[in-house]
Write a structure and sequence with these properties.
about 25% strand, alpha+beta, DUF6438, about 30% helix, seven-stranded mixed β-sheet
Amino acid sequence: MRRSGVLLMPALISLGACASIPQVVMNPPLAGSPETIAVSVGPCFGFCPVYDVVLSPNGDVHFSGKRHTAEVGDRDRRSSPEVYRAVANDFAAFRPADGTTARVPCTAAISDTSSYTITWTTADGRRTVATHQRGCSDGPGHELDNILATLPKRLGIVAWAQQTTRPGLSRG
């Protein structure tokens, strides 16, 4: 019995060496710190810009052009905390209850326009999401359309997000 325990020990030590070690996150965000605001612009029926932009409380702006944008790929720039606060304030009226997803009301919309997803993400990863179809004729959706139209200029990403077509593609 004692001999089998001695033989089993090296095997257990060898298996233990193969076990994965949990990754430690360095410098996690402070609890209660302000959240990021991400806006994802989805495709339309045509050549509308498709991109994601994330605004951090310190004013950092991360742009990721997907399709039909002047810049495809990731770009970063610095805005300001004041821009973050202004955008957060403008989006506040359209924000659903914390941790939920809701669609922004629209009385009548054009069906072939871009979709938008606005996501507020807290430091602990909890997400609150508002979805929207651009082109509302009135009501809350129309008010949000007006805010979204100004967002590229306010964030300093107009040159990256502007609509473009790629070589070889036509608007036929």
